[in-house]
């Protein structure tokens, strides 16, 4: 049996990148999937977001793994749309056990700047709350909520020259910090129901978000039009281990653990998958 055999997982941002990785791996480990993604661009964000074709590919890969999937375009900023997809998904698949609130955008260099701020907060923070709020009525004993944070939420910006200090970039850090606090408080209140909630904090992850022109400009502000080759050496600043980034599958390993019964007594945790990045900014403390 797989590690999440017979369970149903609701995954936002599932069309590509980390979200697709999570959907496929959970399916390989026995879960059916309810998947959503925006499948269109947001005007203030300076790189292309997912497409309907991306979501179709996630469907193909989950079905290739032998599991069922309900997949629909939906914007996590739209709470009613998430509730509608979940109602249809639970109606067809019969239950809900796992929530992976993965959908997120990076607003670095976004224009107009304060619209980028709003879109990042509404997606990365409010979108997580919307997904969790839609899911909670369907969750029971032993269920697991996993939210995607970011090592950016834990950075001591007084010590590090943080890439992306414009409003859209700062909004990313603010949203991920508040997300982390939200999940901490949520975990406290749902623990008596034996429902768990945790955050996974990736460092740089090799996805379309990282490999984008706005991100290259954020890491190499000294260049007018930096390329991936220009930016990649600067990616190392985020990690203590000598790597520029981790892969989506590295994050999926943590998500799968927290989604499975192997972590049945782990809740309220801020789990860093950061190649030691946190170690660069903080002394040991309990």
Automatic annotation (TrEMBL):
Q: Identify the InterPro entries for this entry.
A: NAD(P)-bd_dom_sf, SDR_fam, SDR_subfam_1
Keyword Cell cycle assigned: no
Query: Cross-referenced Pfam families, in alphabetical order?
Result: adh_short_C2 (PF13561)
What keyword terms does UniProt attach to this protein?
NAD, Oxidoreductase
Tell me which family the UniProt entry assigns to this protein. Belongs to the short-chain dehydrogenases/reductases (SDR) family.
Under which name does UniProt file this protein? SDR family mycofactocin-dependent oxidoreductase
| Species this chain originates from | Nocardia goodfellowii
- Upper lineage ranks? Bacteria, Bacillati, Actinomycetota, Actinomycetes, Mycobacteriales
């Amino acid at each position: 049996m797989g590690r999440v055999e017979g369970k149903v997982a609701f995954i936002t941002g599932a069309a590509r990148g980390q979200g697709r990785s999570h959907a496929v791996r959970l399916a390989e480990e026995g879960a059916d999937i309810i998947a959503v993604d925006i499948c269109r661009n947001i005007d203030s964000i300076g790189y292309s977001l997912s497409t309907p074709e991306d979501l179709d590919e996630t469907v193909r890969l989950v079905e290739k793994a032998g599991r069922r999937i309900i997949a629909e375009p939906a914007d996590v900023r739209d709470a009613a749309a998430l509730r509608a997809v979940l109602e249809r998904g639970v109606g067809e698949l019969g239950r809900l056990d796992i929530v992976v609130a993965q959908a997120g955008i990076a607003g670095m260099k976004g224009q107009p700047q304060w619209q980028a701020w709003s879109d990042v907060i509404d997606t990365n923070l409010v979108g997580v709350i919307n997904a969790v709020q839609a899911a909670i009525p369907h969750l029971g004993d032993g269920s697991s909520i996993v939210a995607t944070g970011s090592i950016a939420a834990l950075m001591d910006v007084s010590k590090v020259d943080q890439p992306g200090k414009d409003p859209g970039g700062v909004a990313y850090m603010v949203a991920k910090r508040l997300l982390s606090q939200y999940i901490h408080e949520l975990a406290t209140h749902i623990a008596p129901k034996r429902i768990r909630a945790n955050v996974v904090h990736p460092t740089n992850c090799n996805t379309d978000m990282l490999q984008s022109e706005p991100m290259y400009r954020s890491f190499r502000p000294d260049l007018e039009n930096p390329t991936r080759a220009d930016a990649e050496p600067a990616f190392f600043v985020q990690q203590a281990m000598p790597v520029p980034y981790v892969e989506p599958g590295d994050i999926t390993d943590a998500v799968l653990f927290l989604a499975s019964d192997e972590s049945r007594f782990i809740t309220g945790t801020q789990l860093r998958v950061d190649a030691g990045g946190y170690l660069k900014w903080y002394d040991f403390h309990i």
